[in-house]
């Protein structure tokens, strides 16, 4: 007689993983959460939204891409959750939305309870840092589809913003200043290119000490995504903000262009910052053109805010109070001042 376990799926190990992760999920909650994990659906008391005049719900779904391969090769799984939360929650923040709750999905070749608990630990700790409730999730065992040590993670999140405080392209005006917020490194994008350069082209190993990084290659590549949630919400509360852009896949210019209306053009000044060493090392080892680096990587800028010139210095100072290096990155002009309307160019 063939059992489910014979097919490679262990219900008992899945149950043990849930028990191990409960202590971490308990740290990622909000007063509006009803019940705990283990039900068929996470519950959130929406009566909290009654204080809004016209609440707009914002939703985002994402994963962390092939960065999970680095975590698997290093057998270190308690930071990849920060990457997932960063990719999800900070996509909400760009429209001014406060994140409310998040659910995750982990697919693996074999459930190793301690590994699953480490992944969820990272997700829960990042949720706690951003004020997001982790209300549920799913762990799926896929033997035959994924190798025993392989996994992938994804999630979805929901937030809320008052309609008249919605940030976006319609607020951007000529004369606005683009304020950059430094990234912690590669974040969670471009890892297919990065892995090809370091592993296939250069033949480096993850334990290689890299003087330019001041640490091993693996430590550099596994650096968690910086979370901008609370600083950006504080910024929008304290000063007039017209738009924000989360710099993820596609790079700085392409992501900023998503919040640039056809009535203006934007010019960014490369002389205002020096990208961290990992970006130049990738470019040099791979012989990659600047345009290709710009398209695949964040180049040291993880988030930008577009603000009136009168409050640009205040924005930089406020972000510095949250230990986020910020600076004047560029300016907004009339359409055709720096290029065709709706475009972003580099000086």
From TrEMBL:
Domain PurM-like C-terminal: 173-336
GO BP annotations, alphabetical order: 'de novo' IMP biosynthetic process; adenine biosynthetic process
Enzyme Commission code(s) on record: 6.3.3.1
Pathway field: Purine metabolism; IMP biosynthesis via de novo pathway; 5-amino-1-(5-phospho-D-ribosyl)imidazole from N(2)-formyl-N(1)-(5-phospho-D-ribosyl)glycinamide: step 2/2
Chief localization: cytoplasm
Keywords for this protein: ATP-binding, Cytoplasm, Ligase, Nucleotide-binding, Purine biosynthesis
Top-tier EC class: ligase
Domain PurM-like N-terminal, residue spans: 46-161
A GO CC annotation given for this chain: cytosol
Catalysed reaction, written as an equation: 2-formamido-N(1)-(5-O-phospho-beta-D-ribosyl)acetamidine + ATP = 5-amino-1-(5-phospho-beta-D-ribosyl)imidazole + ADP + phosphate + H(+)
SUPFAM superfamilies given in the database record: PurM C-terminal domain-like, PurM N-terminal domain-like
A molecular function (GO) term: phosphoribosylformylglycinamidine cyclo-ligase activity
Cellular localisation: Cytoplasm
Family: Belongs to the AIR synthase family.
NCBIfam families: purM (TIGR00878)
Protein name stated in the entry: Phosphoribosylformylglycinamidine cyclo-ligase
Gene from which the chain derives: purM
């Amino acid at each position: 007689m063939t059992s489910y376990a014979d097919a490679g799926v262990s219900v008992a190990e899945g149950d043990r993983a849930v028990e191990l992760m409960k202590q971490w999920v308990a740290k990622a909650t909000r007063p509006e959460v009803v019940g705990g994990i283990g039900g068929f659906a996470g519950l959130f008391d929406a009566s909290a939204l009654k204080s809004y005049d016209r609440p707009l719900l914002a939703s985002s779904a994402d994963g962390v891409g092939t960065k999970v391969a680095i975590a698997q090769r290093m057998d270190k799984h308690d930071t990849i959750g920060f990457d997932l939360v960063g990719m999800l929650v900070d996509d909400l923040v760009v429209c001014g939305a406060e994140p409310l709750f998040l659910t995750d999905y982990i697919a693996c070749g074999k459930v190793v309870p301690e590994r699953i608990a480490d992944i969820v630990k990272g997700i829960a700790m990042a949720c706690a840092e951003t004020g997001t409730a982790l209300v549920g999730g799913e762990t799926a065992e896929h033997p035959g589809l994924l190798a025993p040590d392989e996994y992938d993670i994804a999630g979805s999140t929901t937030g809320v913003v008052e309609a008249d405080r919605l940030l976006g392209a319609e607020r951007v005006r000529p004369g606005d200043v683009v304020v950059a917020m430094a990234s912690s490194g590669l974040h969670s994008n471009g890892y297919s290119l990065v892995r090809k350069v370091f592993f296939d082209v250069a033949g480096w190993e993850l334990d290689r000490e890299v003087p330019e990084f001041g640490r091993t290659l693996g430590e550099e590549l596994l650096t968690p995504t910086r979370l901008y949630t609370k600083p950006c919400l504080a910024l929008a509360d304290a000063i007039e903000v017209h738009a924000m852009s989360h710099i993820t896949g596609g790079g700085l210019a392409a992501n900023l262009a998503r919040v640039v209306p056809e009535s203006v053009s934007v010019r960014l000044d490369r002389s205002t910052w020096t990208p961290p060493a990992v970006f130049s090392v990738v470019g040099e080892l791979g012989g990659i053109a600047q345009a290709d680096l710009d398209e695949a990587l964040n180049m040291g800028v993880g988030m930008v805010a577009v603000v009136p010139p009168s409050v640009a210095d205040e924005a930089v100072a406020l972000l510095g109070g949250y230990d986020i290096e910020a600076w004047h990155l560029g300016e907004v002009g009339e359409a055709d001042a720096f290029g065709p309307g709706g475009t972003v160019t580099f000086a």
